[in-house]
Amino acid sequence: MVEIIHIQYKVPIAKPKVGVAGKTGSWRWIKPVVDNSKCVKCFQCEIYCPDNTIMVDPKKGATIDYEYCKGCGICAEVCPVKAITMVKEA
Amino acid sequence: MPKVVLTGNYTVALAAKMARVEIVAAYPITPQTGIVEKLAEYIDKGELDAIMIRVESEHSALAAAFGAAVAGARAFTATSSHGLLYMHEWVHWVSRARIPVVMAIVTRTIGTPWNIWSSYEDFFGQRDTGWILGFAMDNQEVFDMTVQAFKISEDPRVYLPVLIGLDAFTLSHTTMPVDTPEQEELDKWLGPRRQGYVIDGSEPLALGNLAWPEDSEEFFMDLQRGMEEAKKVIREVDESYGKAFGRRYGGLIHRYHCENAKYHVISMGAWSGDLMEAIDILREEGYPVGLIRMRFIRPFPDKEMYEILNGSKGVIVFDRAISFGSLGPLYLDVAANLTKYTRKLPYMRNIVAGIGGVNVTHKDFYELVKATIDDLEKGVEPPVFTWHHRR
């Protein structure tokens, strides 16, 4: 058993939360667009997304949070059925 | 209290077991191997409910111990010499994260040439890491200091890891009788594991994020404050342990014949026992000399040191380590810390000896201390730095 007694000192820990670095979606110049008719719900895009902006629903497929997606393109690379394509931002 | 006859290594293992460590992560290296072997045996026989994490290096050993400690486990590791050097990056990480961990260091010469005997360069190499640095003189103190280390480390005023030094072979492989407390009494005295934060997956927490210079500096200023608090805590723990189990050492330093002493000798480690024999003989011969034996060098007992040495006619600091191109590290600390309290320093002499494990006997100490005092009484000041070597 461990007793957690908070200390009066600064410690280098942080509680991460959504949007702590601002709306990072504005950094994007190309965006991933998903065609859920091709999606096989393998969760690869969700697992690989470095910003945790993709959610895969086992029935409906993938949804991308464009507020925070930086457009890195990893999801399109790992998708085994090419259901995600990178499209230039308008 | 049951008395057992143990080597220094087995004493460390027994103390860690009785402190109910929950994880041990370690990599074997002479002369520390006996510690982890014994702990592995305790776990294997079901006498200790802990996990032994087998790792491929010392760097991973402390990283694993740190991870488990962050998750809330009482963690322990031990190493020596080159293993400690390899671990050095993580030594800094643990203290800067303010996570209680206890580690035993069986001091051993650093190569090359390859050498397994005792010398303190590995220990002093951790001087600036933010760990509390203690050093035991005999196996009884090895036991007491190891269990005390958990109490000090886990005190909310401190929350810093503690390192305990013990000499290769002189302690690690030499048997001595050790008084041990009853398990229930020790449990009551030590209490449950305490720490400032836990990362166990119940909420997202990030450790070691990028920080601005001002924030970083404030973390380290707080660490320095923790060290200052640790002075009080070490004294309190020494006192409460003495009340519970009958042995007190005097806090951060052990004074031996310091009352009415006009000359002072300062040392650390197993050879202090030989020095005590030398002091006994010198006292019989009428030399007013006392010994200050360092139990802790971080935090450094600056005020006690000044109070004892104020008015001293001569001080000899014996160092079993050398800062090449300068002096012995213990001497540097003693001299520098005195300047916090006075501009009138006594005559001070630094004798570096026992490097590479060279045996220094009570006769050597007797002759060196006697010659110094005799010279000073005649008005002759021996050189500040001497490397004492004989073969």
Keywords:
heterodimer, A: alpha+beta, Alpha-Beta Plaits, two-stranded antiparallel ribbon, 6 strands, B: alpha/beta, Rossmann fold, seven-stranded mixed β-sheet, 12 helices
The chain pair with the largest interface is: A-B, 15 and 30 residues
Helix content estimate of chain A: 10-25%
Tally of individual helices of chain B:
12
In the CATH hierarchy, the third-tier topology of the largest domain in chain B is known as Rossmann fold
Largest sheet of chain A: 2 strands, antiparallel
Structural class of chain B: alpha/beta
Helix/strand structural class of chain A: alpha+beta
Number of helices of chain A: 2
Query: Main beta sheet of chain B: strand number and arrangement?
Result: 7 strands, mixed
Rounded to an integer in angstroms, the radius of gyration calculated over CA atoms of chain A is: 17 Å
**How would you spell out the order of helices and strands of chain B?**
EHEHEHEHEHEHEEHEEHEEHEEHEHEHE
> What characteristic shape of chain B results from the CA principal axes?
globular
Number of domains of chain B: 2
Describe the protein's architecture and organization.
The complex is a heterodimer of chains A (90) and B (391). Chain A has 90 residues and is an alpha+beta fold. Chain A has a single domain (24-88), classed as Alpha-Beta Plaits (2-Layer Sandwich). Chain A contains 2 helices and 6 strands. Chain A has helices at 44-48, 74-78; strands at residues 2-4, 13-14, 30-34, 54-57, 61-64, 84-88. The mean pLDDT of chain A is 92. Chain B has 391 residues and is an alpha/beta fold. In chain B, 41% of the residues lie in helices and 19% in strands. Chain B has 12 helices and 17 strands. Chain B has helices at 8-18, 33-44, 58-70, 81-96, 121-124, 139-153, 183-190, 213-245, 272-284, 302-309, 329-338, 362-377; strands at 3-6, 23-26, 51-54, 75-79, 102-107, 132-135, 162-167, 176-179, 193-195, 206-207, 253-256, 263-267, 289-294, 296-298, 314-319, 348-352, 385-387. In chain B, helix 12 links the parallel strand 16 (348-352) and strand 17 (385-387). In chain B, helix 1 (8-18) packs parallel to helix 6 (139-153) and helix 9 packs across helix 12. Chain B is globular. The relative contact order of chain B is 0.11. Chain A binds chain B through residues 1-7, 9-16, and chain B through 72-73, 96-98, 156, 159, 192-199, 203-209, 211, 215, 218-219, 222-223, 225-226.
